[in-house]
Each structure stands twice: as structure tokens, then as C-alpha cells.
Specification:
The complex is a heterodimer of chains A (366) and B (505).
Chain A lengths: L1 E2 L4 H11 L7 H15 L2 E4 L9 E9 L1 H6 L6 H13 L3 E6 L5 H13 L3 E5 L12 H4 L7 E4 L5 E4 L4 H12 L5 E5 L3 E2 H7 L1 E2 L1 H10 L6 E7 L3 E6 L7 E6 L3 E6 L2 E5 L3 E6 L5 E2 L9 E7 L8 H7 L55
Parallel strand pairs in A: 2-5, 3-4, 4-5
Antiparallel strand pairs in A: 1-2, 3-8, 3-9, 5-10, 6-7, 6-8, 11-12, 11-18, 12-13, 13-14, 14-15, 16-17, 16-18
Helix pairs in contact in A: 1-2, 1-5, 1-9, 2-5
Chain B lengths: L1 E6 L3 E7 L5 E8 L5 H11 L6 E6 L1 H8 L6 E8 L13 H7 E8 L14 H14 L3 E6 L7 H14 L4 E4 L8 H31 L6 E4 L5 E3 H6 L7 H14 L4 E6 L4 E7 L2 E2 L6 E3 L2 E3 L7 E3 L5 E3 L5 E5 L4 H4 L10 H7 L17 H18 L8 E4 L15 E2 L7 H7 L3 E10 L2 H18 L8 E9 L7 E10 L3 H5 L1
Parallel strand pairs in B: 1-4, 4-9, 5-6, 5-7, 7-8, 11-19, 19-20
Antiparallel strand pairs in B: 1-2, 2-3, 9-10, 11-12, 12-13, 12-16, 14-15, 17-18, 21-23, 22-23
Helix pairs in contact in B: 1-6, 2-6, 4-5, 8-12
The chains are: A alpha+beta (366), B alpha/beta (505).
């Protein structure tokens, strides 16, 4: 498969759905990808199984605030500086780019940057959706080292972070974010070709395209009758009489009907404006909006006990929810992350929701 | 006395408002190609010349954008390199409009970080080269944007000085910090649109002035802005884009005034659409995010309006469906009651005895009950979509097509005030003046808010508000959670009554 300007809208829509209500402004990433594809030509999507075992694969993304990203739009040279530094650190040429996070704007930026570098894009990503924590990746679960990791901006101002765990990586990135102007390009959990098939969420790019072309049947269609920390959706039409609650933080976290969870993080929960067909982000939720609520399964690895510890309901502060059985039949563990649990430095990543409408992708909980 | 005028695509409406606030006279006359004679005709029909001010609301400029006509090619100059290169100006515009408007695109150094520190230094030689290119291409209008100019407009102002010195006074400069809010592409788009409208604004504002002179009126002229406040003629010439949504704003404000309500839903039913908006504290609720205008993503301050395809000219299908197709301005020849052969929504209203228009005998026996019930249900659903809480909400109906509705399911308080058909002209006449602040502050919350409020009040006073009449109508705080140092984005809006003495002075 190749991503060109014709396929991009479907891919970007899929990324928006996989943002699960978060993941930053897709409109910016999509426009950047369109421009890059026009300037540099289509991007080849390669299967993880086709990779040379020694090939250096560079995961890419941005971290920071959505408000900053919508104003201080990125440059064109971030991926070049990232690549140069990664090549220097690993002593080998980068052979392919991968999205650190397929959900939200970062999925689209991976396409833009692959186009800029003239490199193929691996059909995989680190999350199979959007998560707020940089360490909430399959690579982390599989024991891939997050470092050496690189942060840089468009003019090549660069910070290399080494010898830290995923949780500490976040801490260092956050500390540097202000100096970078609130927005930074990053590469971490750098992989070799032979690791990709076992250490990432597979098929993410093709899945985003398929999702963008055809969305799953909604759980419920209705109107938002209550907005705030949790969202009440009142069924309309065929769903008249149903009342569904959607718990939200930086992302949509759980769908609850009659006191029982119907869907929950780590699975993707997306709201679609039934009038415009646009994906609704958590900060766009408001009373009266007509929405369809849908869910898309995450990568099954997130339903293992380790996966749930890192990115299950408890990691987002939903302590009352026991993990749901995955659609694929996997059973969840206890799902308790413990105090100061995974992904959280000062608390559960879900606490980021309290930060208001500017909370977003791969951001570090305050 | 003051006169409010609404120059629409089809009709020019005018209303004369007495000093006590009562509507003394109201007229409708057709909008003319030259604008001037239509307004002059409406003013003649009103018959009052001894007025203290004339306020005009117009859709003239937004129509020019929608039609991609009468637009000036623009040089878009953005300051922010090496940031922002991923998305050059005009990148997300519809092709047809882009071809008309794109004169040249220049990415230059300059701009600021969110905290006001420079991204890169402004490069004087670079800007002189840009000026030379603009001169060589013969462009007469320039849009200048820079990163985080709502935080610091320093780059834009200095670049404007350099370009003005090189290009002289005949080239218009539009600065993004004066036009939009945070969100570079959307603000820049609005600035480019403004630049493209500058020559048309000069001509149109001159035509308005000429119409007043012809009607023998020697009173200050104001144009209404998107947010329901006024700007003077000089400001209107420089910021035509600020009039874009004044149509719906004026009809909503007029509806509030005529009904005496400040918090309600307003449904303006015209020939083709019903536009639903929400008034809060007497002002329209603004759209939260980005607004698409003629396919261009902008962040104009515009009212949050939901339009559905139901109006007085809507065509009634054989299955009883109403709209979205409409006979539009041909209503007076095509509707059954006017001797035409098309069953329209207006015919239903006449058949139901809700309006006395044309020849009612021509619609005797027309089944009006079910289609009008569907109309009421769809309008009610649109109002329901727009409300922000389940609390009871009065609904005010205005516009010529509002005779379609007598009741709305789910809403107990539905009114149609006197002069409902010229609510937009009334809205123009009663407009106030305002001042707004929208930028990133840092420091303790109370200090930040006090600073922002004082600045908004000061801006309203500078805009011509009467001392003592200014109040804060809107405060919005967005903590930039991931930026250390208590950075908060604060939006504050203050409005007050227009002080005519201050304007004369």
C-alpha cells in the first residue's frame, strides 16, 4: 500500500477515530501530511514482516499542548534532525519510520515525516490508538529500551535522553518542553527490523485506512444530555429510551449502560457528530450535540495483565471498573495499577482530564 | 432617533428607532446592484433625516467571498521561520478561491513562542526583498501573520512598518493580531480574507456614505460587527471581515430587543433557511472552535448558528416533505397564493390561516396539517440541538418566514414580537460598542483576571463606549496545563453603550 493525497483523508479519519477523543488536532497533522505528500510524493507502507532484521526503525511523534500546536505549526526539518541524531547514536542509517502513536495528529505526522525523509512507513505503531503517556507503548511492555531518545525542534535544537525508564523519560521530556516552546518532536523506543513484528501494535496504518473508509456500527446514537467529566448520551430514533454514560478524561475512557461497562479503555471509544460526520474530541463535547458512540478494539496486548497495568481502566483513575473481556476473548487481570501507577508520575494519567480542554496527546500529567 | 439598516442579498430593511427605544417606522426595499440607491430608497421611505446615528449591517462582504468575486489578490506574508514551514499560507483553501486570492506567499523569519520570547529575529533585508517582490507583482493588499501574535504583535507591527516604508500608503496592510485569535492557520486565513476585501470595503463604505448624503442625512455612520457591536467607518474600511456574521447577529439581537428577552433561543426564518442561535446576556453565543466560511477555515468571532433548510419559500414535496429546495426570491411569482404553480411552505401557512398573504382561495383544501407539524418538529429539534442545558428556554421567532410556526413541541414559551420581519435592522440600530482581550497571561489567577478585565474595559472605552456603561459580558479561562509558570489563556469581552458625543469629538 502507498499513502498518497487520495488515500490520506481516509487514513486521517481513521487516525481521528483511534484518538479515542484525544490525540491532538488531526486537522493540522492531515494538512501537514497533504503538503508533504504533494512536495515529496507518496509514502510506501511496508509490512513488519518484510523488514530487514538489522534495519533501524525510527518511531516518531510530537509531544506538547494542542493550543501551541495549532499556533506554532511545525516546520519541515524536525524529522531530518531526528533522523540525523538517531543515526549518530545508533551508528546505522534509519531505514523506515513508524508512528509512535497512530491515534490523533501523530498518526498523520508520521506520514508527513516519512514523505519528507523519503523513507517507508512501517504498518505498525506503538499504541494502536492514542494514549496520554509516552511510555504507554507495546515496546515498553515488551522490554524495548526507550532510550537513547531524542527530542528536537525544526531548527535542530536537540536534547538526547539516555539511561532512563519510560516513566522517567516522560519526566525529562516534560522538563524540557517549556524550553522548546511547549511543543517538541520526539523519537524513543528505537527498534531494529527483527523486533518490530513482536514488539509493536501491528497493522496500524492499514487499519486506520480501513476504519476511515468504513466505521463500525455504533453502540448507541443519540444526543448529549449532559456534558462535563462524564457525558450522558440519551438515545434517539431506534435507540430511544436508552441512556449511556461515557466517562472522559483526556480521552474517552468508558461507556456504561445500566451500571455495566459496555466498552472501556484500553479499547478505543469514539464519538462521531452525526450531522457533520466529524470525530468529536473530548473538549468539543457539549449539550445537545447529536452523536454516535462507537468502539474499536485496541491491540490485544493491552488486555494482558501487564497491558492493563500500564493502560487499563485503573491507570486512568477508573477504579470502580474491572477490566472488560477483550472482544477477542482475552481475559483481563485485576487491572489495578496501585498508587502512583503506571503511566502516572504524580497520579493516574486520567487526571490529565482535569486540566481542561487543552489536555491532549502524549502529554505528561501535570 | 437612530436608523438601523440591514443590507441583505435580496432586501434592504430599515428601521427608525426613537430616543425612548421604540420602533417608529420600518420599511423593506429591494437591494440594488450599486447598494447606494437601495439604501437611499429605504431612507427616503423612512422619511427621517434628523437622526443622531445610522447603523448598517451588511452581508455584502461575505457574499463576495462566497461568490469569489470582487476580491483583490493578496500577498500573504508569514513571520515564524523556521517554524510553520510544514504548512504554508493558503494551504487549506478551496482551489477556486485560492486561485482568485493568492497573489504571492512569503515565509519569513520572526514570530514568538507562547511566552512572548522570539522564535527568530525579524530580518529587515528579507522583508525588503518581499516588498520588492510585492511591488514587482503589482499587488496592492498584504496580509501579515506571525506566530503567537495574539501574545505579542511585535513582529507583525515591525514588519508592517518596514513594508509600509517600502511600498507606500497605497498598499493595504492587514495584521492578523488585529483580526483573529490563537490558532495560526485560521487567524491567518481570516487576515488574508480581510486583505482580499479591502478595496471592496473602500468602495462599499463610500457607497453607504453617498446614500446617506443623498437622503440628506448628516449623522455618523457605523457598521455592525460579528459580535453585535459597532465599528466606525474608518475601522470598517480596514476590517471588512469583521462584518461577516453581522446578519445573524443583528437578527438575534433585534429579536432580543423586540421581545424584551436577553436569554433565549432565536429562530430567524427567511426564504430558504431557518437559522437558530442562542442569546445569552443579550449577545449571541459564539462558535467555540473554527468556523468554515466559503470553505475557508477561520476563527472569526461569529455566532454559533445552526441552519436548516426550511423557509417560507421551501418547496413542499408530494410526500409532504418541506425543503431544503426553495423557490427563494421567486416566492412572489411561484407560490400558489401568488398565482404560481409550486406548493410552498408559505402556501401551507396561508392554508392554515396563520398568514394573510396573496389569494387564500388558491390553497383551499391543501393538506397543511401534517407538513406544518413536521416543520415545527424539525425547527424544535434544531433549537434543542443548540441549547446548552435542559432548563426551560424561551424561543423568539423572527423573519418573514416565521409565520410557518405557531407552536414548537417541547417549548412552552414561543413568541413572535412586533416588527419581527425587520428584526435585523432593529438589531443594527441598537448595537453597542465593545472591547475584547484574548491572550496568554502568566501569574496568579486573580491578578491575571483583573489585568485582562481592565484591558477589555479600556478597549471598549477607546472604541467609543460611554463611561460607566461598560460591563464585562464574557470571561473565559483556559489554563495551559502543560506549560509551567501558571500560563493561562484568558478571553474577556466588555461592552457598553455608544457615546455619540465621544464619537463626534
Amino acid at each position: 500500500m502507498r499513502i498518497d493525497t487520495g488515500l490520506l483523508p481516509a487514513f486521517a479519519r481513521g487516525c481521528a477515530v483511534l484518538g479515542s477523543g484525544g490525540g491532538g488536532p488531526v486537522a493540522i497533522g492531515r494538512a501537514a501530511a497533504r503538503q508533504a505528500l504533494e512536495d515529496h510524493g507518496p509514502v510506501e507502507v511496508v509490512s513488519p514482516t518484510e523488514l530487514d532484521p538489522s534495519l533501524l526503525v525510527m518511531p516518531v511523534g510530537t509531544a506538547g499542548s494542542s493550543a501551541v500546536m495549532s499556533e506554532r505549526v511545525g516546520g519541515t526539518e524536525e524529522p531530518v534532525h531526528l533522523r540525523d541524531k538517531i543515526e549518530e547514536l545508533f551508528g546505522a542509517p534509519v531505514g523506515a519510520v513508524m508512528a509512535s502513536e497512530i491515534g490523533g495528529t501523530n498518526g498523520c505526522l508520521a506520514v508527513a515525516w516519512a514523505a519528507r525523509l523519503g523513507l517507508p512507513l512501517v504498518d505498525a505503531d506503538g499504541m494502536s490508538r492514542a494514549f496520554p503517556g509516552m511510555d504507554q507503548t507495546v515496546m515498553q511492555l515488551r522490554g524495548v529500551s526507550p532510550t537513547p531518545a531524542v527530542m528536537c525542534d525544526e531548527r535542530g535544537r536537540t536534547v538526547v535522553i539516555d539511561h532512563v525508564t519510560g516513566r522517567w523519560l516522560e519526566r525529562f521530556v516534560r522538563a524540557s518542553l517549556e524550553a522548546f516552546g511547549g511543543q517538541v518532536a520526539t523519537s524513543e523506543y528505537v527498534l531494529r527490523g527483527h523486533q518490530v513484528a513482536s514488539c509493536t501494535a501491528l497493522g496500524s496504518v492499514t487499519r486506520a485506512v480501513r476504519l476511515g473508509e468504513r466505521l463500525p456500527e455504533p453502540i448507541v446514537t443519540g444526543k448529549i444530555a449532559e456534558a462535563g467529566g462524564s457525558v450522558l448520551v440519551e438515545g434517539l430514533g431506534p435507540d430511544e429510551g436508552r441512556l449511556v454514560r461515557v466517562e472522559a478524561g483526556s480521552e474517552f475512557l468508558a461507556v456504561i449502560e445500566d451500571g455495566a461497562p459496555v466498552a472501556a479503555v484500553p479499547d478505543v471509544i469514539a464519538l462521531l457528530d452525526t450531522r457533520t460526520r466529524e470525530v468529536v474530541q473530548t473538549e468539543q463535547v457539549r449539550y445537545g450535540l447529536r452523536v454516535a458512540v462507537l468502539t474499536v478494539p485496541c491491540d490485544p496486548v493491552w488486555h494482558t495483565p501487564e497491558g492493563l497495568r500500564l493502560a487499563g481502566p485503573a491507570a486512568f483513575g477508573l477504579t470502580g471498573l474491572t477490566a472488560l473481556a477483550a472482544p477477542g476473548g482475552l481475559t483481563g487481570g485485576s487491572g489495578t495499577g496501585g498508587p502512583g501507577g503506571p503511566g502516572g508520575l504524580g497520579g493516574p494519567a486520567g487526571a490529565a482530564g482535569a486540566a481542561g480542554p487543552l489536555a491532549d496527546r502524549r502529554e505528561v500529567a501535570p | 432617533m437612530r436608523i438601523g439598516i440591514d443590507v441583505g442579498g435580496t432586501n434592504t430593511d430599515a428601521a427608525l428607532i426613537g430616543d425612548g427605544g421604540q420602533v417608529l417606522a420600518a420599511v423593506k426595499s429591494p437591494t440594488t446592484e450599486d447598494v447606494t440607491s437601495g439604501i437611499a430608497a429605504a431612507l427616503d421611505a423612512l422619511g427621517a433625516t434628523d437622526v443622531s446615528a445610522v447603523m448598517i449591517g451588511t452581508t455584502h462582504f461575505v457574499n463576495a467571498l462566497v461568490e469569489a468575486a470582487r476580491l483583490e489578490p493578496v500577498a500573504a506574508v508569514r513571520l515564524g521561520l523556521p517554524a510553520t514551514a510544514a504548512l504554508p499560507p493558503l494551504v487549506d483553501w478551496p482551489d477556486r478561491l485560492r486561485e482568485t486570492v493568492e497573489g504571492a506567499v512569503h515565509l519569513c523569519h520572526g514570530g514568538h513562542e507562547y511566552d512572548g520570547s522570539p522564535i527568530s529575529a525579524l530580518d529587515v533585508d528579507e522583508l525588503r526583498a518581499v516588498a520588492a517582490d510585492i511591488r514587482r507583482r503589482g499587488l496592492r493588499s498584504v496580509a501579515i501573520s506571525s506566530v503567537f501574535s495574539p501574545v505579542s504583535d511585535d513582529s507583525e507591527r515591525r514588519a508592517a512598518e518596514i513594508l509600509a516604508a517600502e511600498l507606500g500608503p497605497d498598499v493595504h496592510l492587514s495584521l492578523s493580531a488585529e483580526i483573529g485569535r490563537v490558532g495560526l492557520l485560521a487567524r491567518e486565513n481570516a487576515t488574508i480574507v480581510n486583505a482580499a476585501l479591502r478595496p471592496l470595503a473602500d468602495r462599499t463604505v463610500a457607497a453607504f456614505g453617498e446614500a446617506l448624503r443623498r437622503a440628506g442625512i448628516d449623522a455618523p455612520l457605523f457598521l455592525s460587527q460579528n459580535d453585535g457591536t459597532l465599528m466606525d467607518v474608518d475601522h470598517a474600511r480596514r476590517y471588512p471581515v469583521a462584518t461577516f456574521a453581522s446578519g445573524p447577529t443583528n437578527s438575534m439581537r433585534g429579536a432580543a430587543y423586540l421581545s424584551g428577552l436577553t436569554d433565549c433561543a432565536v429562530v430567524d426564518i427567511g426564504g430558504t433557511t431557518s437559522d437558530v442561535g442562542i442569546l445569552s446576556g443579550g449577545f449571541p453565543r459564539e462558535a467555540a472552535g473554527e468556523a468554515m466560511v466559503a470553505g475557508v477555515r477561520t476563527n472569526f468571532r461569529i455566532p454559533d448558528v445552526l441552519s436548516i433548510g426550511i423557509g417560507g419559500g421551501s418547496i413542499v414535496g408530494p410526500d409532504g416533505s418541506v425543503g431544503p429546495r426553495s423557490v427563494g426570491f421567486r416566492l412572489s411569482s411561484e407560490a400558489l397564493v401568488f398565482g404560481g404553480s409550486t406548493l410552498t411552505a408559505t402556501d401551507l401557512a396561508v392554508a392554515a390561516g396563520r398568514a394573510e398573504i396573496g389569494d387564500p382561495s388558491r390553497v383551499a383544501g391543501v393538506d397543511h396539517e401534517r407538513p406544518l407539524k413536521v416543520v415545527a418538529e424539525r425547527v424544535a429539534e434544531a433549537v434543542d440541538r443548540m441549547r446548552t442545558s435542559a432548563a426551560p428556554l424561551p424561543v423568539v421567532l423572527v423573519g418573514g418566514g416565521s409565520v410557518l410556526i405557531d407552536r414548537l413541541p417541547g417549548f412552552d414559551d414561543v413568541r413572535r414580537p412586533d416588527h419581527f420581519e425587520v428584526a435585523n435592522a432593529v438589531g443594527a440600530a441598537i448595537a453597542q460598542v465593545g472591547g475584547e482581550v484574548d491572550r496568554v497571561f502568566s501569574g496568579p489567577r486573580e491578578t491575571v483576571l483583573a489585568e485582562a478585565r481592565a484591558e477589555a474595559v479600556e478597549r471598549a472605552l477607546r472604541a467609543g463606549a460611554r463611561e460607566g456603561s461598560v460591563r464585562i459580558v464574557d470571561v473565559e479561562e483556559l489554563p495551559l496545563a502543560y506549560l509551567p509558570g501558571d500560563a493561562t489563556r484568558v478571553r474577556v469581552k466588555a461592552v457598553g453603550d455608544l457615546d455619540l458625543e465621544k464619537i463626534d469629538a
